[in-house]
Design a protein that fits this description.
Strand order of the largest sheet: 3-5-6-9-7
Largest sheet: 5 strands, mixed, barrel
Helix content: 25-40%
Strand content: 25-35%
Number of strands: 10
Oligomer: single chain
Length: 236
């Protein structure tokens, strides 16, 4: 038989504390399910065959991570740059260039990475494609600057986040709020280096859930042990 006479003050601390820890654990389990669904969606999009850009745009936000194909002329004189790290941690930029589509309209394309020494288009002139070209890339949605994102250096056309509406506005263009990240098909001269789509979706929710449930179990153990030592919990 168990005889338990809980003390008021410790119980008033224990009950909300336990409820909070269990609630956080359950919340992390729910987030785990959502994150796994997101990862599955990303993988499905990346494995699907390329579709025309117009078809992708009709899908709205569901088009992110889909491969799309498009044809047009690059407006090389309007290209801008996103600060980035490339292969082996090299410091450089992503080259963002508007593509005037053969079907009409314009879209921004992330052509890929160039090291800082090659930011100037004159240093990679063969990669500045002048003629009509076709490409395939991954559709990404526009990003929003964070609280600590540096302001763009408009004089040098240097940006720190892929904020498509703001970048397009600086070019004097009207484009859909998406960015096409070109695939790894080599460019003339080797630069820009395409295929830079970064799939980094952290999924630590199971570890967090285990931590919160573990703390809840530890709290319960301390609470019960305290009552045992106070003679308020007995096993007869």
């Amino acid at each position: 038989m168990i005889r338990f006479r809980p003390l008021l003050i410790p119980t008033l601390w224990f009950v909300p504390g336990l409820a909070l820890l269990l609630g956080l654990g359950v919340w992390q389990i729910e987030r785990l399910s959502e994150k796994e669904a997101l990862i599955a969606s990303v993988e499905a999009g990346l494995q699907a065959p390329p579709i025309p850009l117009d078809e992708a745009l009709k899908l709205g936000n569901d088009a992110e991570w889909r491969h799309v194909r498009l044809t047009g002329h690059f407006l090389n004189d309007k290209e801008v740059y996103i600060f980035a790290q490339g292969p082996m941690g090299a410091v450089g930029v992503h080259v963002i260039a508007p593509l005037m589509r053969a079907e009409g309209g314009t879209v921004l394309v992330d052509r890929g990475f160039v090291p800082e020494a090659l930011r100037d288009p004159a240093t990679r002139a063969t990669g500045e494609i002048e003629n009509e070209t076709s490409l395939t890339g991954v559709l990404r949605l526009s990003q929003r600057p964070g609280l600590f994102t540096p302001a763009p250096d408009l004089a040098n056309r240097l940006w720190f986040v892929k904020d498509v509406p703001a970048i397009a506005s600086s070019m004097g263009l009207d484009v859909p709020p998406v960015l096409i990240e070109a695939d790894a098909t080599p460019n003339p001269g080797g630069w820009p280096l395409g295929g830079q789509t970064n799939i980094d979706i952290p999924n630590d929710h199971l570890q967090y859930a285990i931590t919160w449930f573990g703390l809840a179990l530890a709290l319960m153990g301390v609470y019960l042990l305290y009552h045992v030592r106070q003679g308020r919990l007995r096993f007869e």
